[in-house]
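Structure tokens please, single chain.
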Amino acid sequence: MSTAPVDSNNVPEEATQEAPNTPPATVEELNKAMQQGSPDQVRALFDRLLQQYPTSGLLWYSYAQFEYRLNNVPELEEI
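Here you go.
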């Protein structure tokens, strides 16, 4: 399973204003998981990271984009 990587340069400005401190290592970990992991593994990683960084607009936006690319409307609506 491969989805487009997280691109912090392509995120709406308002998504990064609340929590601009999402560590780059977090983005790298997500990109690796999206390229190599199953959708369930990626969701588990998003859930874990969002517990650590609950106000990270980048993470929320990336999670929604991930589900959108999978055309997973029910999960997207929950986000």
